[in-house]
Amino acid sequence: MYVILGASGNTGHVVAKNLLARGQNVRVVGRNAAHLQSLGGEGAEIFIGDVLDATTLTKAFHKADAAYVMIPPNPTSNDVRAYEDRVSDAIAAAVLEAGVKHVVSLSSFGADKPSGTGPVAGLHDLEQKLKQINGANALHLRAGYFMENSLPQVGAIRMLGKVIGRLSPNLKLPMIATRDIGAAAADALLRLAFQGKQTQELQGQRDLDYSEAASIIGKAIGKPDLGYIHAPDDQIRAAMVQMGMSDNFAGLILEMASALNTGHMRTLEPRSASNTTPTKFETFVAESFVSAYRQQAAA
Ligand SMILES: NC(=O)c1ccc[n+]([C@@H]2O[C@H](COP(=O)([O-])OP(=O)(O)OC[C@H]3O[C@@H](n4cnc5c(N)ncnc54)[C@H](OP(=O)(O)O)[C@@H]3O)[C@@H](O)[C@H]2O)c1
User: Fold this and answer.
1) CB-based contacts of 266: which residues, under 8 Å, 6+ apart?
2) pTM recorded for the entire structure
3) What pLDDT digit, counting tens, does each position of 246-279 carry?
4) Is the CB of 267 within 6 Å of ligand 1?
5) CATH architecture of the domain with range 2-145+177-202
6) What is the largest distance, in Å, between two alpha-carbon atoms of the chain?
């Protein structure tokens, strides 16, 4: 039995779908049954529970041979780091109590650093807590910068006619499509070839910066001159709060942006076939960004 946390989300649903497609027994975990129904239709066992609750998670992990674990984002929390701590405590306690032997965790590049990386410090702590569990083999997938992070730019383009952000315009980032993370996690879970405690970076198809990303988006939406504005902290903070995020979350995202800009947060592995994943940013834009942009136009 495989147990998948965050199973209705970007990465988790791909992990679950891939395992189901290979005929595996899969238990999918989330708070809302409706979000998990399509996976249920494909044969998954649906388990409703909150990742903050160690007792519930222990039940979710009952008889699991392996699990995919993650800290779901909580952008409205007024204390995101405390929330992350509570989730990683609950996950670690449940993995130990249920005796799960193989765990694939969703981590991030930058998780080697204990602090100064915004929400990624919570992923560092998750890795550390899982490392302390004797008898559990853990593979921490240190994913690159999600291509999906560009989706809120739909609103910026509509309002300002530009892509806007805090990252330096020429900062090369290992941008990755979340479906590639899900596929890599499912592969690792199917093979169960990891032993002890390991990390593996997933760097996406290539490194690219926001100037190039804006240009690719611009061509795809019929605005070939679309540019990128490197905005100051206060402007980005105000925009995030206006979108409904807490000031605390916005502050952590700005800390992460600074860590990326200064190189405090960076990949550690040289790019190779094993940490490069297939989906190009151009493909993500054509398949996901353009439809989000058109939907907002229609709305
Ligand atoms: N953004 C980046 O560039 C980046 C890079 C590297 C790593 N990461 C990490 O990736 C993770 C996010 O992965 P993702 O995008 O696959 O997640 P996601 O799409 O946000 O999915 C998370 C899922 O978890 C469920 N969930 C939320 N709160 C829950 C709770 N309290 N208890 C149980 N389930 C809950 C939600 O479903 P329901 O609402 O149905 O419960 C949601 O579908 C974060 O840990 C983030 O730090 C992000």
Assistant:
1) 109, 110, 260
2) 0.98
3) 999 999 999 999 999 999 999 999 999 999 999 9
4) no
5) 3-Layer(aba) Sandwich (3.40)
6) 56
